[in-house]
Amino acid sequence: MSWFVDDADVATIAAVCRSRVIGAGVDPFRYDHVTVGLATLRDWLPAFVGLAEQDAATAEAAEQAGRTATARQAWRATAAAAHVANTLPNPDLTAAVAADRRAVDALRRYAALGGTVHDLRPETGGPRFEGELRLPAGPHDARPPVAVVVPGLDSGRAEFLDLADALLARGVAVAAVDGPGQGALADEPPEPAYQQVTSAVIDCLTALEVVDPDRVVLVGLSLGGLYAMRSAAADPRIRAVATVSGPYPMPTWDALPPFAVDTLTIRCGGADHARRVTAALAHPDLPASVEQPLLVVSGGADTVPSPVQAQHIAASAPAGELLLVPDGDHLLGNARWQWLNHTVDWLAEHATPHPDERKVRAAVGTRDDLRARTEASGGFGGLVRAGLVGGAPTGPVTQVGAEGVPRRLVGDDSYDGGGGAGRLGGGPEPVRQRFDDHDGVGAGGEVGM
Predict the structure, then answer these.
(1) How far apart, in Å, do the first and last CA atoms of the chain sit?
(2) Between these two residues, 422 and 164, which has the higher pLDDT value?
(3) 152/197 same-domain check
(4) 233 and 97, same structural domain?
(5) Reduced 3-state DSSP string for 272-326
(6) Same domain membership, residue 124 and residue 98
(7) Does residue 240 lie in a domain region?
(8) Residue 222 belongs to what domain range?
(9) How far apart are CA 378 and CA 85, in angstroms?
(10) By percentage, how much of the chain surpasses pLDDT 70?
(11) Angle at 292 between CA 286 and CA 295, to 5 degrees
């Protein structure tokens, strides 16, 4: 069988992945030094494991010398490099998972040197996941709000430490998890019904009694955006959702790029199971089912979702809002300053209920009472319409201009890539959803999902 890592052009994939890898925490000069020496993409995994080993040695030596700040940053670099080793679909799944296990160990050591960390594990017989809950350092609420970070198809909880740190800096606890098929659990098939995983995570957070279960928000990245929308549609305990490069509708199997086909095939143990998983990820009218506030963050240079698809997601959701970065690629690693702070501020603000809502929440009662009222009211939207929980009107479109400052657009402006009437303006021409059979990346040049 021919694999993506054997057929794809090394220089092309290195260029495509650069912004994502740097965003995950790998130094750009080290990235260039490592990738220029790759003979084939099969060398990607051992090369980044080697980088992680260098950083781990630095971290261990710094800890022994009592240099906590140096150790912490070296553990962060270790986590980034070890996770990046597992982002391309290497057929050696055992080695790939071992790399992400190294990443998780480094993540935990990084987090423990900066604050309080709790294990997150499911109840016996529950949906599979594992992760950590990090509490904000310094003064914060006795039970702070919490954001659940949902990774995508080929990512894991060790990839988004900058996002987690930004939330923690705003007093929001962070629950970062790997579900089936993700990160350290990449040797399991993905779970299309990811809402079961998320609900189990919220159950676990509630049982710990260290965060406020009435102030749970979600942020899903890439395929994690689709998972997060499914989760919000199913669980009324989720207050708000942000998606970053979240695909919808889910591409069909025949439309997937080769890297995604190989990732699913390897993690599912065969193409037949992978096809079934892909089909099960389809969810008709999903955005319309998300009644909570929904922030859709998307790049104008992305193809999955395209700018038009991203606008459709936001417009279809009852409380949708679009933040479009015209030049942003998939996961917007090339424009982090244009969306990251805005997104974490939005999440932090939506995690804090209005004082009047606290009274209503108290009147609603326990979590089980809320679920019962939700069913009786015809879903989360019924509770919003009845005034029992917070909702928000459909939000405007926000575009990030060249100066990096979000600006709101009103009326019926729509994105078609240019700057004329009825357009968001200032962005590049939208890229059609097309995949090149040679290098396996999208027409907009992204690897990741």
Answers:
(1) 23
(2) 164
(3) yes
(4) no
(5) HHHHHHHHHCCCCCHHHHCCCCEEEEEECCCCCCCHHHHHHHHHHCCCEEEEEEC
(6) no
(7) yes
(8) 120-353+390-444
(9) 45
(10) 79
(11) 80
Q: Which of 21-30, 313-322, 403-412, 419-428 has the lowest mean pLDDT?
A: 419-428
The C-alpha angle 105, 107, 113, rounded to 5 degrees, equals 105
Question: Is there a single domain that holds both residue 107 and residue 135?
Answer: no
Q: DSSP letter at 253?
A: G
Residue listed under structure tokens 């040049």: 445
Short-list 297, 86, 80, CA closest to 183: 86
Rounded Cα distance, 234 and 199, in Å:
9
Q: What helix, strand, coil percent values describe the chain, rounded to 5? A: 45, 15, 40
Nearest to 256 by CA among 231, 278, 235, 289: 278
* Residue 261 backbone phi and psi in degrees, to 5: -60, -45
Same domain, 347 and 326: yes
Q: What is the CATH number for 336?
A: 3.40.50.1820
User: Do 190 and 268 contact (CB within 8 A), yes or no?
Assistant: yes
Last residue of a domain, one of 67, 98, 114: 114
pLDDT for 56: 98
Q: H/E element holding 96?
A: helix 93-112
Nearest to 57 by CA among 72, 74, 45: 74
Classify strands 117-120 and 130-134 as parallel, antiparallel or unpaired: antiparallel
Number of alpha carbons in the 13 Å side-chain half-sphere of residue 214: 22
Instruction: Give every CB contact of residue 213 below 8 A, 6+ residues apart in sequence.
Output: 202, 205, 206, 237, 367
Task: Please work out, in degrees rounded to the nearest 5, the angle formed at the alpha carbon of residue 336 by the alpha carbons of 263 and 41.
Answer: 30
Of 80, 114, 148, which one is at a domain's C-terminal end? 114
Instruction: Read off the pLDDT of residues 195-248 as tens digits, 9 standing for 90 and up.
Output: 999 999 999 999 999 999 999 999 999 999 999 999 999 999 999 999 999 999
Q: What is the mean pLDDT of residues 164-180?
A: 97
Q: Are 341 and 243 contained in the same domain?
A: yes
Q: Is the pLDDT of residue 382 over 70?
A: no
- Please say if the pLDDT value at position 383 is more than 60: no
Is the confidence at residue 442, as pLDDT, over 50? no
What is the strand order of the sheet 146-150 is part of?
117-120, 130-134, 173-178, 146-150, 216-221, 238-244, 294-299, 320-325, 397-400, 406-409
| pTM of the shown model | 0.84
Is pLDDT of 323 > 50?
yes
In the predicted model, is pLDDT for residue 365 greater than 60? no
Helix (H, G, I), strand (E, B) or coil at 118: strand
